[in-house]
Design brief:
The chain is mainly alpha-helical. It has two helices and no strands. The chain has a domain of 30 residues.
Length: 54
């Protein structure tokens, strides 16, 4: 994901990416991991829960 962000130079990734990285580290703390991502289920999605790794 970092490489994808930095591929779009016009979006100034050096300015926003440190915030993105901090967010991933914070989500990792919440999940007991080094890094993690958060997702929101779309309201029109079926009511099927995603399996969580333990």
């Amino acid at each position: 994901k970092r490489a994808a962000c930095f591929a779009h130079v016009s979006q100034n990734p050096e300015e926003f990416y440190p915030y993105h990285d901090a967010m991933n580290r914070f989500r990792g703390l919440e999940a007991g991991r080094k890094y993690a991502e958060a997702f929101v289920r779309h309201a029109q999605s079926p009511d099927v829960a995603l399996p969580l790794a333990t």
